[in-house]
């Protein structure tokens, strides 16, 4: 071999800015020291994941392009791990806002309209994977939905566990025990489009309700596994109750997406997208979340200048007084006051639903 034919290894001048996540799959924030561009690297041990596209056909990941999918810029093998580990790293763009999970942990609370818009965007990305590339994501969860700064809203990322569907639209499930694992993954079923839809349902639930109590599940792996093997969701039933401000239509969408039986869920991402588009909603945002008072304000997408407010005040008796107001030049009562035992009492949910019905009446 002459000098011109000699093959030399390339070195990417990536400076590690920080380890963004140090769990089972390490995530690092890099900066190219020559170009100044920020990147993210996610390391995956593909032992037991030999059916993934990242393992079998990594080049395919580089050609998948959609506004609501995080692009994979490169796939590299990582040396230095002991056999039988086989570690690869997916290199992707850096999004400063992080993931939906990052935002929730940092204290951001999505309004109803924001949650609907981000879920719709992520569903567009999921539909692209399913229908154009015949791929199942198999790991849809809030840490894998990134928040972009442009009009594209959410982007579904981390295709490290994606696999090709069989002709019948199914594939081997990803048998991991985590909050977002669909019940069929451990109860003997096959993964399908509906498995990914289940993750989208839980994603929407978290965005509109706030984060699940992650800390309480850190040592509850056996408990979650038992529920999953019994065909039930990994989160506890009490943690899956929608808050009163969640519109009735959105509650129905979440419940359908998260049905235990995959056959009873939305069968395609596009079906869930269409259901979200039909929801009557007020874009509620919590503006005060105190011990003794809680306020929500919002308007409908069609009439953004017509603002409504729901106020809850704790009384001396320990109950709560809830009032619904329409805000123009000054507050104007539009729904009778009610007394409720707690801020999340059924009567409060009815009050919110009455305001939505009034605000969206045609």
How would you sum up this structure, described in words?
This protein is α+β, with helices and mostly antiparallel strands. The chain has three domains: 3-93, Phosphorylase Kinase, domain 1 (2-Layer Sandwich), CATH 3.30.200; 100-277, Transferase(Phosphotransferase) domain 1 (Transferase(Phosphotransferase), domain 1); 285-359. The protein has ten helices and 16 strands. It has a five-stranded antiparallel sheet with strand order 1-2-3-5-4. Strands 12-13-14-15-16 form a five-stranded antiparallel sheet, covered by helices on one side. Strand 14 (307-314) and strand 15 (320-327) form a beta hairpin. Helix 4 (112-133) runs antiparallel to helix 9 and helix 5 runs antiparallel to helix 8 (248-257). The protein is globular and about 80 Å long. Residues 17-24 have low confidence and may be disordered.
Please give a handful of descriptors for the protein shown.
single chain; 362 residues; alpha+beta; Phosphorylase Kinase, domain 1; five-stranded antiparallel beta sheet; 10 helices; globular
Give a summary of the structure in a few sentences.
By secondary structure, the protein is of the alpha+beta class.
Topology overview:
Elements: E1 14-21, E2 27-32, E3 38-45, H1 53-56, H2 58-63, E4 74-78, E5 87-93, H3 100-105, H4 112-133, E6 135-136, E7 145-147, E8 154-156, E9 163-164, E10 170-171, E11 191-192, H5 193-209, H6 214-217, H7 221-229, H8 248-257, H9 269-277, E12 285-289, E13 293-299, E14 307-314, E15 320-327, E16 331-340, H10 346-359
Antiparallel strand pairs: 1-2, 2-3, 3-5, 4-5, 6-9, 7-8, 10-11, 12-13, 13-14, 14-15, 15-16
Helix pairs in contact: 4-5, 4-9, 5-8
């Amino acid at each position: 071999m002459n000098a011109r034919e000699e093959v030399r290894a390339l070195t990417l001048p990536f400076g590690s800015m920080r380890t963004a996540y140090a769990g089972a799959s390490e995530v690092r924030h890099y900066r190219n020291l020559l170009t100044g561009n920020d990147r993210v690297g996610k390391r995956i041990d593909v032992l037991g994941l030999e059916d993934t596209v990242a393992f079998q056909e990594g080049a395919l990941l580089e050609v998948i392009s959609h506004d609501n999918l995080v692009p994979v810029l490169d796939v590299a093998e990582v040396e230095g791990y002991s056999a039988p580990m086989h570690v690869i790293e997916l290199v992707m763009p850096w999004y400063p806002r992080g993931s939906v999970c990052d935002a929730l942990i940092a204290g951001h609370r999505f309004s109803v309209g924001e949650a609907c818009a981000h879920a719709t965007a992520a569903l567009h990305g999921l539909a692209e994977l399913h229908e154009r590339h015949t791929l199942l994501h198999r790991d849809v969860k809030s840490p894998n939905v990134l928040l972009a700064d442009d009009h594209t809203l959410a982007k579904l990322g981390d295709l490290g566990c994606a696999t090709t569907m069989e002709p019948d639209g199914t594939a081997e499930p990803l048998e991991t025990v985590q909050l977002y694992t669909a019940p069929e993954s451990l109860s003997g079923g096959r993964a399908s489009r509906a498995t990914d839809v289940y993750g989208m349902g839980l994603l929407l639930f978290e965005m509109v309700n706030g984060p699940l109590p992650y800390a309480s599940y850190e040592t509850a792996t056996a408990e979650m596994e038992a529920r999953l093997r019994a065909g039930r969701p990994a989160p506890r039933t009490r943690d899956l109750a929608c808050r009163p401000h969640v519109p009735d239509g959105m509650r129905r969408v979440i419940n359908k997406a998260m049905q235990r039986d995959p056959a009873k869920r939305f069968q395609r991402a596009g079906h869930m997208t269409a259901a979200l588009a039909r929801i009557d909603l007020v874009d509620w945002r919590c503006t005060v979340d105190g011990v003794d008072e809680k306020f929500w304000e919002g308007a409908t997408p069609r009439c953004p200048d017509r603002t409504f407010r729901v106020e809850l005040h704790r009384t001396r008796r320990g109950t709560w007084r809830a009032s619904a107001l329409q805000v123009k030049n000054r507050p104007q009562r539009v729904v009778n006051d009610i007394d409720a035992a707690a801020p999340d009492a059924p009567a409060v949910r009815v009050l919110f639903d009455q305001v939505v019905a009034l605000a969206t009446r045609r």
